[in-house]
Design goal:
alpha+beta; seven-stranded mixed beta sheet; binds zinc ion
């Protein structure tokens, strides 16, 4: 009787195939669950129309392919999914965003993007860092953004939003090579505390002293301590707003608001500094009250604000990091300066 042997070459090919299929399955699983961020686009707004456009590669919208130069208009109620292998734009008539990966949702309702983490870091590094930022400071910011992205969900329905609340997704524009290099050269580097990746943050100007996360957000963040920043030039600002514009946005009128120490305010309810600032800024507009630390004075029909710093003042100070890099200090030295309790981990 002739025995049937398994051909060793076929056996090897068969095993290889399963190894490849297993690997593809494993990595594709990771790409969808861990390596992409779900981003809320047009956060807190529900645009009634959307325009999507390919930039430098074809774009697929609901199964149909479009090419650079084409524009795809979608209106209220339309369900869509769009993706490209390269960057593309999405706008609502007021703002435009440059994205990678895929976007999906229903126009007039929630719209999301699924962006690979390293591409999200590249986009937000461009959205948050001015073009004159030196390379080592860009590298430090990349590590901070990566840590923020990988530390957990920052919103109920998504990982991050597309605004400065988390990190700004920019409008379509060319991406300078130094931004690409900064993200690539810091790949896999994150900040940790007690073995966990921390939600590290950047702020445009710390006012000469960064604040602890607890004093701004009200919740415990042991990794986040305030430090004296001798590298930045503190930014002082003033802003004046009509009293009637502010009188109805919180349970009590402005004359009855009471600051309770540095970190909280009583306005009919007790609010942390950041939540209070965010509420005022949503009414007055971004850039009006530049930071959550300010004093207020009612002057006839207006409220005069005087403050220090630009941004929430927690974590890496961009003005300070720029000055450190210009003085020849490295990415690690910048990160250790602003995050003295954290560990730089690979
Ligand atoms: Zn956010
Ligand atoms: Zn500073």
């Amino acid at each position: 009787m002739k025995r049937k042997f398994i051909d060793s070459k076929n056996f090897y090919n068969c095993c290889s195939l399963w190894v490849v299929l297993f690997w593809v399955g494993l990595t594709s699983g990771l790409i969808h669950s861990d390596d992409s961020l779900k981003v809320c686009l047009f956060w807190n707004r529900f645009p009634q129309k959307i325009q999507i456009a390919p930039i430098d590669a074809p774009l697929t919208v609901n199964g149909k392919t479009f090419h650079p130069g084409d524009k795809i208009d979608l209106s209220t109620g339309q369900k869509f999914i769009a993706h490209s292998i390269e960057k593309f734009s999405v706008g609502d008539g007021k703002t435009e965003r440059m994205v990678f990966g895929r976007i999906f949702g229903i126009v007039g309702e929630h719209i999301y993007a699924k962006i690979p983490v390293e591409k999200w870091i590249l986009l937000t590094l461009l959205g948050e860092s001015p073009s004159d930022t030196p390379f080592e400071a860009l590298c430090a910011c990349s590590v901070v953004l990566r840590s923020f992205a990988l530390s957990g969900h920052h919103h109920k329905n998504c990982d991050v939003c597309d605004r400065t609340h988390c990190a700004q997704i920019p409008k379509p524009q060319p991406i300078p090579i130094k931004y690409i290099d900064a993200v690539k050269s810091t790949e896999n580097i994150v900040l940790t505390y007690d073995g966990k990746i921390i939600p590290a943050t950047i702020t445009a100007n710390c006012g000469g002293h960064t604040l602890s996360g607890q004093s701004v957000w009200g919740n415990k963040c042991e990794w986040s301590v305030g430090i004296l920043d001798t590298f930045c030039r503190p930014l002082y600002w003033n802003f004046s707003a009509p009293l009637e514009k502010l009188n109805n946005i919180l349970p009590l009128p402005v004359s009855q608001w009471q600051f309770l120490g540095d970190s909280t305010i009583y306005v009919g309810i007790t609010m942390a500094r950041f939540a209070f600032w965010d509420t005022l800024v949503q009414t007055l507009g971004w850039g009006t009250l530049k930071s959550p630390t300010f004093t207020m004075k009612i002057d006839n029909d207006s409220v005069k604000f005087s403050g220090i710093g630009f941004g929430h003042r927690v974590g890496l100070c961009q003005d300070g990091a720029k000055s450190m890099a210009e003085k020849g200090l490295s990415m690690s030295q910048i990160l250790k300066y602003y995050f003295p309790s954290a560990k730089i981990s690979i």
